[in-house]
Amino acid sequence: MFKRLFRYIKGYNSMNESLAMAAPVTTEVTAGTATNTYQMCFYIGDDHQASPPTPADPLVTIQDRPQSTVFTRTVGGYLRKDEDWLTEAGRLNELLKAGGETVSHEHMYWVGYDAPFKFWHRRNEVWLLKD
Hints:
By secondary structure, the chain is α+β, with helices and mostly antiparallel strands. Helices cover 19% and strands 30% of the residues. It has helices spanning 2-9, 82-98; strands at 22-30, 37-43, 70-75, 103-112, 124-130. Strand 1 (22-30) and strand 2 (37-43) form a beta hairpin. It is globular and about 50 Å long. The mean pLDDT is 93.
């Protein structure tokens, strides 16, 4: 997923124009009965928000997300496996339950703010949507 999106911002689009890489990079995880589905998104910077270039790759789309309320938990280090992310989501869910909050268990977001080659003081987040 990352490579396709990276190609888009590096000029594989209708304007053949490079776009600035914006943080965070989000991966929406939708729970399925047999398997989860994943959709990765890069944010488009202010200079292209009103009229982003059309992706040249048919598997890359422009998505406008509605405003939503999320609960988040910040996590450092590298989270490489699904189990790592799911463990953090479970921890956040337990904290929210203890506080009387309810969240959707249909979707969650795995969020990264740092380049892959940043080794220290990494910032990742798990987002759960308020029910």
